[in-house]
Design brief:
Blueprint (H helix, E strand, L loop, with lengths): L6 E5 L5 H14 L11 H9 L9 E6 L5 E9 L9 E8 L8 H13 L6 E7 L3 H9 L3 E12 L2 E11 L3
Parallel strand pairs: 4-5
Antiparallel strand pairs: 1-2, 2-3, 3-4, 5-7, 6-7
Amino acid sequence: MTERGEVQVRAGEEGDLPDLTDIYNHYVRETPVTFDIEPLTVDARRPWLLSHPKDGPHRLLVALDAESNRVLGYATSSPFRPKPAYSTSVEVSVYLAPDACGRGVGTLLYERLFDALGGEDVHRAYAGIAQPNEASVRLHARFGFRRIGTYGEVGRKFGRYWDVAWYEKPLGC
């Protein structure tokens, strides 16, 4: 799977939080992928981790290098919107350590995430992708997402405005 060996995927745990925060903060500091502007602390990320139990529709899966046990990335399914009628929809995302990109780790994480969601009461998955981001667009297309619209210049970061394209994937129920 990777250049150095196998990748294991499991539910995220409290001990992963420093590595998960480091990965996320790379995207905060270096890219428009997330619209957070300031890096987050581990303590600030703890409620996010705790909002993703090991089962149910809102999950956090972590990819580990089997040899070194290093966190390579993570995928989540989170509430799409807070109102009850949205409960059968989730928003999904994948974040990878920079050196794990292009090695199949994102694909593996999504395979496991969508397998896990197959037994849940989830009707649709949505992904918002800041544009441009061809790698993310390709990943989501590989899993059957289709583009349903774009929010034009919806976020400002690094002194410019960014569009976010929205993608949708039908799920089991």
